[in-house]
Each structure stands twice: as structure tokens, then as C-alpha cells.
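Working notes for the structural subgroup meeting. M.R. asked for a predicted model of this chain before we commit to crystallization trials. I am recording the input and output together here so anyone reviewing the notebook later can reproduce the run.

Input as submitted:
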Amino acid sequence: MKLEHMSISRGYRMAGKVLFALALIYPAAAHAYVGPGAGLTAIGTVVALIAALLLAVVGFVWYPVKRFRQRRKVDTQADPQLVDTPRDRK
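Returned structure, recorded in C-alpha cell form:
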């Protein structure tokens, strides 16, 4: 009997989540005026957010690659035989 009660409760929760999601995506007319100052501010905020996210991704990718390249450069300077260059092939 307790299991039936839990499954009904779970069903209500799922229906509530679905209704909430539908209410969020349902378009409603705002009948509001967005002036040029507020519009430009909103556009600038979105552009800044996208730029910050892109720079964060580039930072997480570029700096480990840069560190790897520097470490490899130091390793090859310590032991030049690790690098096979055309000059060495005679």
C-alpha cells in the first residue's frame, strides 16, 4: 500500500514539473516598451556574457597547451637527441 502511495506522489510531482516547464516556455504578450537605453544595455550584457564564456573556454584550453609546449621545449633543450630534425639527418 505504501508503494502505491509513493508512485502516485511521484506522478503528481512529474506532472507538476511538466506543467511548470510548459508555463515557462509559453509566450505571453508583455505589452511593454523597451527604450533604446534598456535595449542596448540588454544587448551589451548578452554580448559580454558570451565573450566571458568564450574567453573562459579559451583559457581552459590554451594555458594547458602552452604549458605542455614549454615543458616539451625545456625537455628538448636538456636532451637534444630527443628531437629528430632534418639538420640531424645526414
